[in-house]
Amino acid sequence: MAVPKRKHSNSRTGKRRSHDRLKKRSLAYCPQCSTAVPTHVICPKCGYYQGRTVVEQEEA
């Protein structure tokens, strides 16, 4: 059975784990109402997505 001869250093372990973190969601601005919205998501304020109004918003 294969067994490591030496312990991996903390530096080497950290280098391996450096890509495991969660990344922030990138934000884009809605071309209709200029609200910051995550990419690939319908705008919650005006219902606009990919050049058309997908969800009709009620006036409050």
UniProtKB/TrEMBL annotation:
Presence of keyword Ribosomal protein: yes
InterPro entries hit by this protein: Ribosomal_bL32 (IPR002677), Ribosomal_bL32_bact (IPR044957), Ribosomal_zn-bd (IPR011332)
* One Gene Ontology biological process: translation
Segments carrying the region annotation (Disordered) are 1-23
Q: Which Pfam families match?
A: Ribosomal_L32p
- Signal sequence, start to end: none
> Could you give one GO CC term from the UniProt record?
large ribosomal subunit
Which molecular function term from Gene Ontology is one that the record holds?
A: structural constituent of ribosome
Question: Keywords for this entry?
Answer: Ribonucleoprotein, Ribosomal protein
Task: Establish whether keyword Ribosomal protein is in the entry.
Answer: yes
HAMAP family recorded for this chain? Ribosomal_bL32
Per the record, the similarity remark reads: Belongs to the bacterial ribosomal protein bL32 family.
* Database matches in PANTHER family: 50S RIBOSOMAL PROTEIN L32, LARGE RIBOSOMAL SUBUNIT PROTEIN BL32
**NCBIfam families associated with the record:** rpmF_bact (TIGR01031)
What protein name applies here? Answer: Large ribosomal subunit protein bL32
- Species in which this protein is naturally found: Neorhodopirellula pilleata
Q: Which gene encodes it?
A: rpmF
